[in-house]
Structure formats: structure tokens, C-alpha cells
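User: Here's a chain of 54 residues. Predict its fold as C-alpha cells.
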Amino acid sequence: MAKSNAGKSSSKRTTGKDSKRIQSAADKNPSSKSATTGFKERAQSAAAKNENKQ
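Assistant: Prediction complete.
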């Protein structure tokens, strides 16, 4: 059985592509945790910050 990485942080920076994927998933299911916890907005913010660092 594969180990889950749930709850563990990753060293990978959020990209614009990641942000779009997260936003799309949250928009498809408005009652999901991604949509209801503000994760969608945080991903968008992180992607914008990371794009400016490059």
C-alpha cells in the first residue's frame, strides 16, 4: 500500500498551472474543502508570489 502525503508540506512551489487546477476543482465542487476553506485563494496568491520570484 502506498503511503499518503496528506497533511505533510511539500517543498514544491505552487505554479500558475497548479493554481488553475485547484481553482477548477473547487469551482466544480463548491462544497469541497478546497472551495470552503479558502485554499483556492491561497493557491492563487502563492502562485502569483512565486511567479514574481522567477
